Amino acid sequence: MNESTLDNSIKYLIYSSHKSGTSTIQKSFQNSNIKSLKIHGTFNCQFYNQPSNIKDFFKEYYSFNKKKIKLISIFRDPLERHISSFFQSNTNNTEKKTKKHMKFEDTIFSKKTIDELIDLFKNDLSSGKFVGAGDSLMEMSKLGIIDLNDLSFDSNKLINLYQNDNVELYLFRFDLIIMAFNFYLSKLPGCSAVKVIPTNLTKDKNINELYKIFKRNLKLEKNLIEEIYQRKEILNKIFYKKSYKNLIRKSIEKYS
């Protein structure tokens, strides 16, 4: 059984958007003997038994375990996540399909100027077709796993739980959980003794200084910034509520 196989012994399915902190959750669960699986979508999932799609798997899981499967999803400020995804996707050794990162001298970051990198990033944003363009919650909605109209998020709560007939979905916001992973994760069912292992952090990589310079020099058109947030408006309003417009305003001030 490979690492992307869904089976009935999984305690948590980490349904990840690219660069949203879920690698830390997965590593922490592994370190704490909590069986979990992290996926970025259902396109590369394999099913251990008969189900041919993820909704049927959830039904089988419930029938087998007499309880709903627990899902985790983290929502991150779209523009900040796209910047981080740009750096992550261009340092992954995708040709060999390994988890190893390319040597810095083999990446575009050693071969292009900051202005050239910014132009590439702008092209990615404008096209809407790039690694990390999607969002796990949007995919769950399209697959009929959840109804976005039923989601709610209270930033004052440690646990934000959405439930339907087949799943328990635990929702987090990146800027909150990143400050206190141990505190938030320990409140999840069966995770009181979790040992957090920070993983896949940009600050720990050899591109960190370049990443900072890139962000300081990044300038985007106001309408492009607004479009980025518009693409995920329903999620921004769920997770940021009244501060949603303020979130956009701050990004415009920072990057335009």
Keywords:
single chain; 256 residues; alpha/beta; Rossmann fold; five-stranded mixed sheet; two-stranded parallel ribbon; 11 helices; 7 strands; 12% strand
Plain-language structure description:
The structure is a single chain. The protein is α/β, with parallel strands linked by helices and 256 residues long. The chain is built from 11 helices and 7 strands. The strands form 2 sheets. The protein has a 5-stranded mixed β-sheet with strand order 3-2-5-7-6. Strands 1-4 form a two-stranded parallel ribbon. Helix 4 crosses helix 8 and helix 9 (222-230) packs antiparallel against helix 11. The termini are far apart. The mean pLDDT is 87.
How would the blueprint of this fold be written?
Layout: E1 5-6, E2 12-15, H1 22-31, E3 36-39, E4 46-47, H2 54-65, E5 69-75, H3 78-89, H4 114-127, H5 136-142, E6 160-163, E7 167-173, H6 174-177, H7 181-185, H8 208-217, H9 222-230, H10 233-240, H11 244-255
Parallel strand pairs: 1-4, 2-3, 2-5, 5-7
Antiparallel strand pairs: 6-7
Main sheet: strand order: 3-2-5-7-6
Low-confidence stretches: none
Domain count: the total is 1
Backbone shape:
globular
Order of helices and strands: EEHEEHEHHHEEHHHHHH
Number of strands: 7
